[in-house]
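Entry, Tuesday afternoon. Goal for today is a structural model of the target with zinc ion bound, before we commit to ordering more compound. Inputs were pasted exactly as handed over by J.K., no edits. I checked the ligand SMILES twice against the vendor sheet because last time a stereocentre got dropped in transcription.
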Amino acid sequence: MRIVIDGGHSGSPDPGAVNARTGLQEADVALLVSKLVESQLLAAGHEVKLTRTEWEQAETDDLSYRTSLANDWGADIFVSIHCNSAASPSAAGYEVWTSPGDTPGDVLATCIYKQIAAEFPDRVGRPDYSDGDPDKESRFYVLVHTDAPACLVEMAFISNDEEAALLSDAAWQERYARAIVRGVTDYAALKTNAE
Ligand SMILES: [Zn+2]
């Protein structure tokens, strides 16, 4: 499988969400986790491209750079990695997003959501089961403009001090990457069995 991992935001000038107390930046965490996902997927025998490989990459401010990278390569799977943020410091938990409607991205998102839930039973999931599966839906640019099945993972709330501490922990990042990778490989196995 050809898999594109999209670390959200671009560092400078767009750090994404920032923890008010520690200054931890979403773009930093997203890049670190996307690199961990890359190395684990490579070890599992997949082909992988990252949309971001460095802290500052101005061209990635243009989201069409990210989707073109996936579309031009003929990616089979696209996963965007983010940290959530809210005005309420107590907001917590993980979400997986897809574009609206019933798409192959829903199947991918369900595989990843289930693996995050299995790895982190102590964290709260924020699902939307109104259409029968746990993903939330929105017309996020990278989800709408990617040809491959795509989803976006909001790992945890960087605005929540407890979750920000987890997001900055190397061992927790490694576990999170492993959960995402298991979800991706579950999806890849479904696809392979269906062919
Ligand atoms: Zn983000």
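Helices lie at 26-43, 63-73, 104-119, 141-144, 161-167, 170-194.
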